């Protein structure tokens, strides 16, 4: 598996933390603590998931789902077509 560039992870961290502060009204310390200890961040840092190849919007949506529902896997980006019920 390819090694994840720490600079890339740092950029994701900044984007998601800034979003958490703006969207969820968290302080910078709270946003940093919650994201860095989240399942979303663990998945992002896992070299097997390749999530760092995704848009920051995917990671932000996953973190939003984790905050709102307790599970980042409820993200529409992960569920994809499974949300669409075919006739």
Can you give a write-up of this model?
The chain is mainly α and 87 residues long. It has one domain. It is built from five helices and no strands. Helix 1 crosses helix 2 and helix 1 packs across helix 4. The N and C termini lie far apart (40 Å). The C terminus is likely disordered.
Key descriptive features of the protein:
disordered C terminus; 87 residues; mainly alpha
Q: Flag low-confidence runs.
A: 83-87
Largest sheet: none
Question: How many domains make up the 3D coordinates?
Answer: 1
Structural class: mainly alpha
Helical proportion, percent range? 55-70%
Q: Approximately what portion of the residues adopt beta-strand conformation?
A: under 5%
The chain-level mean pLDDT equals 89
Distance between the termini: 40 Å
What does the radius of gyration come to? 13 Å
The run of helices and strands is HHHHH
Would you report the number of β strands?
Answer: 0
Q: Tally the helices.
A: 5
Shape: globular
């Amino acid at each position: 598996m390819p090694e994840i560039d720490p600079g890339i992870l740092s950029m994701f961290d900044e984007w998601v933390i800034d979003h958490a502060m703006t969207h969820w009204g968290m302080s910078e310390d709270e946003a940093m603590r919650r994201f860095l200890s989240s399942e979303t961040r663990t998945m992002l840092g896992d070299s097997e998931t390749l999530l760092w190849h995704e848009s920051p919007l995917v990671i932000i949506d996953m973190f939003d789902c984790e905050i709102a529902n307790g599970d980042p896997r409820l993200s529409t980006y992960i569920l994809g077509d499974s949300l669409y019920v075919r006739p």
